[in-house]
Amino acid sequence: MARALRKSEVRSTKSEVEVREVREVREVRKVEKRSPLELDRLIHERLRLGIVSALAVNERLTFNDLKRLLQTTDGNLSVHARKLEDAHYIVCEKGFEGRMPRTEYRLAAAGRRAFEKYLAHMEAIIKAARP
């Protein structure tokens, strides 16, 4: 049987949500404040780069498709996908196929722009490093 929440529990839950929202805003601001010479650290991490790359060449992929493609665990993929989703680089759509839950991801416009900028930056680094 469900019990009613006490006022202190409601305040605690509300403050946790506020803290989470502040963290999300700070993460987005970090992305926006980068110097043009800095790599996009959000994309540069190996698994997140794999997610964005896979979604750049596929219109949409399911959670299981990405997990199989990137050879990673459920927990690892969900954490990294959430970071990209919080930065508005990817869009997560949850639904059902019959009675089975289905999570699909697609690259958002901001994610495509960030990925293209990242690739151009990497190409410039490679070009500058070659004699």
Give an overview of the whole structure.
- With 131 residues, the chain is of the alpha+beta class.
- It has a single domain, classed as Orthogonal Bundle (Arc Repressor Mutant, subunit A).
- Helices cover 64% and strands 14% of the residues.
- The protein is built from six helices and three strands.
- It has a three-stranded antiparallel sheet with strand order 1-3-2.
- The longest helix has 26 residues.
- It is globular.
Keywords:
131 residues, alpha+beta, Arc Repressor Mutant, subunit A, 3-stranded antiparallel beta sheet, 14% strand
Offer a quick outline of the entry.
With 131 residues, the protein is an alpha+beta fold.
Element layout with pairings:
Elements: H1 7-32, H2 41-44, H3 46-57, E1 61-62, H4 63-70, H5 74-86, E2 90-97, E3 100-107, H6 109-129
Antiparallel strand pairs: 1-3, 2-3
- Give me the CATH fold name: Arc Repressor Mutant, subunit A
How many structurally independent domains?
A: 1
CATH A-level architecture: Orthogonal Bundle
Low-pLDDT runs? none
Task: Provide a count of the helices.
Answer: 6
Order of strands across the main sheet: 1-3-2
The helix content, as a percent range, equals 55-70%
So what's the overall shape?
A: globular
Strand content: 5-15%
CATH homology superfamily: Winged helix-like DNA-binding domain superfamily/Winged helix DNA-binding domain
